[in-house]
Amino acid sequence: MNQQHPFKWRHFQSDIILLCVRWYLRYSLSYRDLEEIMLERGLPVVDHTTIYRWVQCYAPQLDQRCRPHLKGTTDSWRVDETSIKVKKVWVYLYRAVDSQGQTLDFWFSPTRDGQAALRFFLKTLVASHTSLPRVSGARQKRRLS
């Protein structure tokens, strides 16, 4: 996908695409609910499968672009692991929580092994490291020791 013009060659305007993707990710709306909301607002008819494709295409990019601007977390965080049933299949849910109870990241894994936990830890460390405010070199050395 072209990074300069991610909405190039799309039938709908970028505002409509971003609005649908944002509402789907932020609120517990179904694709058909969004289709109905867009129709009620007088916007062009948007099919629910089109919204599904937009979410699949643009949600990872939005996450990648917004994550560095999120509020920095504290240095103290915990990891919780539990098994849950998703669509009649048992999976393991790994969840990282900071000292104030805010969820930093989560990950589903079909297996419970060291490699799955290690992948989650590395992913969370990289994400929390990029969201932390930058510290000068001397303070950072003191903080790490």
UniProtKB/TrEMBL annotation:
Keywords: DNA recombination, DNA-binding, Transposition. GO terms for molecular function: DNA binding. Coiled coil: none annotated. Residues 75-128 form the DDE domain. InterPro entries: DDE_dom (IPR032874), IS_Transposase (IPR052183), Transpos_IS6 (IPR047930). GO terms for biological process: DNA recombination; transposition. It holds the Pfam family DDE_Tnp_IS240. NCBIfam families: transpos_IS6. This is DDE domain-containing protein. The lineage of its organism: Bacteria, Bacillati, Chloroflexota, Ktedonobacteria, Ktedonobacterales.
